[in-house]
């Protein structure tokens, strides 16, 4: 962990509502300023999540997405507007952050992430938040995080359901995302919201919860905001509405974090 610089008077004012919370405080805000989060996917989850991650004052953000904005994105991807259609999401996201808070350090990658390049993108992060929409990509990111020793928040949403899970598969006693879903989805073949549909507000609920969990993970051991909840998956049901949580045990034979190959 890199401790952030002392907060200027302007930064103290900007984050005053965080600082007065005993569970975050000045120490927590300074710590967030020194953290590096890699956000993979700037769509239904990554777009609204980024707004809260930047607003939280996480000092360094790496944004990864190779896609361009389409008209159909605007129903749920709140970062973009009609004038952004046809432009790269990563470039637009960086431009938004620069206007929102120029003190944040932002880098982008507009290459499609896969098993070959994932580790290089995540290796110096304090946390990775994956909001991509295919199992093949999610599993490639999970495996890269395990190899690089980086914790992972995996978030997904579809129709009226969302899920957010925290994984630290690089630790001997903790599960990785592959322990959760198994090996059957390495092929790029999962359903998409274009086929199944998605309530826009459901993406917002999942994304904002993921952003809150990201702050929780980054402050684990620094403040009393709560533990990182490794191996816990939270399921959100927009139809009920309700939330439930369950734990994932480490699979000793997992080919991502166990002895499997």
Chart the SSEs and their pairings.
Layout: H1 9-14, H2 16-19, H3 25-33, E1 36-40, H4 46-55, E2 60-64, H5 89-100, E3 105-109, H6 118-122, E4 127-130, H7 135-148, E5 152-158, E6 161-167, H8 177-181, H9 193-196, H10 200-218, E7 232-237, E8 242-247
Parallel strand pairs: 1-2, 1-4, 2-3, 4-5
Antiparallel strand pairs: 5-6, 6-7, 7-8
Helix pairs in contact: 4-10
Description:
The protein has 261 residues and is α/β, with parallel strands linked by helices. Helices cover 34% and strands 17% of the residues. The chain has ten helices and eight strands. Strands 3-2-1-4-5-6-7-8 form an eight-stranded mixed β-sheet, sandwiched between helices. Strand 1, helix 4 and strand 2 form a beta-alpha-beta unit. It is globular. It starts with 8 loop residues before the first helix and ends in a 14-residue tail after the last strand. The relative contact order is 0.15. The mean pLDDT is 93.
Record keyword descriptors for this entry.
alpha/beta; 17% strand; globular; 8-stranded mixed sheet; 261 residues
Oligomer: single chain
Beta-strand residue percentage: 15-25%
Report, as a whole number of angstroms, the end-to-end distance.
Answer: 31 Å
Global shape:
globular
- Most strands sheet: 8 strands, mixed
One letter per element, helices H and strands E, the order comes to HHHEHEHEHEHEEHHHEE
Overall mean pLDDT stands at 93
SS content category: alpha/beta
Write out the strand line-up for the largest beta sheet, numbering strands in chain order: 3-2-1-4-5-6-7-8
DSSP strand tally: 8
- Helix content estimate: 25-40%
Radius of gyration: 18 Å
Number of helical runs?
Answer: 10
| Low-pLDDT sequence parts | none
